[in-house]
Specification:
Blueprint: E1 15-24, E2 39-43, E3 52-63, H1 65-85, H2 88-106, H3 110-134, H4 137-155, E4 160-162, H5 164-167, E5 170-172
Antiparallel strand pairs: 1-3, 1-4, 2-3, 2-5
Helix pairs in contact: 1-3, 2-3
Bound molecules: zinc ion.
Length: 173
């Protein structure tokens, strides 16, 4: 028995990852009767009970390690660009850095220019590496799974997706 094939690359055997899907509860009724196992839940998050939700079910996605590693690397890159480089103080530091590198190059001091350029790149690579390492693998796999099946579920009317951990904040009743 070999594992089922990864849905992303369609070549390598993968592992099953599952996430929960649902939507905001309609004001009346309990959703489409007789289709999905629907129940109501209340979210207990940072703010008190933020609403009622219909939980549609569990969606399984097959993903291989290679695809997850590549997707994780891309996500780390996006996080670094969004959360790190765009922080005003950090962005300013990068600007200063670019000016310093440019100034050394302008003066023809290539040794200093290379040192500053290299230093900045090494620091950026370190930030990227740390970001990559702290991305929690399980939640990350589920986010990747959501990316792959989101469109299909949205067409069916489900527009909220929860990882296992997020789902734990939903209390069925
Ligand atoms: Zn794959």
């Amino acid at each position: 028995m070999s594992n089922p094939t990864c849905e992303q690359c369609e070549s390598t055997p993968g592992t099953t990852y599952a996430f929960h899907y649902g939507r905001r509860a309609a004001r009346t009724g309990t959703g489409q009767a007789g289709t999905e196992p629907v129940f109501r839940a209340t979210v207990h998050g940072r703010s008190p009970a933020t609403g009622e939700y219909e939980v549609g079910g569990l969606e399984a996605v097959i993903l291989c390690d290679g695809c997850l590693t590549r997707a994780r690397a891309r996500r780390a890159g996006r996080l670094v660009l969004r959360e790190w480089v765009r922080t005003p103080l950090i962005a300013f530091a990068y600007l200063v850095w670019a000016v310093v590198v440019g100034a050394w190059a302008w003066q023809g001091n290539w040794t200093q220019a290379a040192i500053w350029l290299g230093g900045g790149l090494v620091l950026s690579a370190a930030v990227y590496a740390v970001t990559y390492l702290i991305l929690e693998s399980e939640d990350f796999a589920q986010h990747t799974a959501v990316d792959l099946h989101e469109e299909k579920l949205r067409e069916q009317g489900w527009d909220l997706f929860w990882t296992e951990k997020e789902f734990g904040h939903l209390t069925p009743h």
